[in-house]
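Now for our specimen.

. . .
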Amino acid sequence: MTNSVSSSAISLFKEIVHDLKSSKKLSEIFPSALIFSKELKDKDLEKWLQLEMNGYIRPNPALTADVVVPEYRTVPGQYYDIYGRPLVLSDPKMSFVNEYRLRHGVVELEKFAEYKDFIAIQDSHFIDGIKKHLKVNVYSFKFSPDAILGILDAIKTNLINKIIAIKQDFILEEQMKDKPESKTFNIAFSNLHPSIIKVANRLFLDGHYRQAILDTYIFLVDEVRKISGRIDLDGTSLIEKVFSQKKPIIKLSDDPDEQLGFMWLFKGAVMGIRNPKAHKLIQLKDPQKALEWLSFASVLLRILDEAEVLKND
């Protein structure tokens, strides 16, 4: 978030806060919240809203490989066979079998909450798993609609917490309006790579320039590890392996010399900025100099965005 937040975003923010205090259903609040997340270009909030609105199901493009159905969507219940006989487990270590994480969107959850009788779900993945590991045939998982109320409350609480965090950013921005560096922030910071805005926004706004830079470069290295899949490596050994001139995992150029040059840029970022010994270099109070350090990281992140990942190692 930046000082250039639009008036429409501020209006939506006030609307969402008002609605959260009212008796409105989540399904009525989420559309405005989703538009708000797009106004702010907050990808994490947007993704979470899309998952909660449309469900943690495969047709939803927000359900990427890294997504796990949240624990707060767990309902207690019991499996039954086709004749209505319950699956009774005497071993307390197997109690997790009698729990299920609901993947449904908020509209379906709100409908479930209105049911008078127990709700039955047939999930072939879990049914097959029980048959394979417990040697028992089950037909469906049944649970009380009362459990849905807890899930809806948890989703609402999560949304409230996210909105509170955004409100704190608004407050920080208000405090920065009369500070000289606010103009620099508007012009330069808002044009940096979106990940930097996410990682360093509040730190930069509050004048914690050293920590903003350090957190940004830690994030940069973590991105290299995540993209390359080499989470077992760190520091210069990671950079040398991943951006190898002869056998790169992350290919930045078809020209071996250019590939090597890019490797040196990333290696310099690790050795000269991220590493603890280099922290003296970023003990600064000048927002312009801080922006220049962050700009270098922004360039490297944009290079990563355009890189080709070669799973050849």
Remarks:
- Residues 7-67+152-161 form one domain.
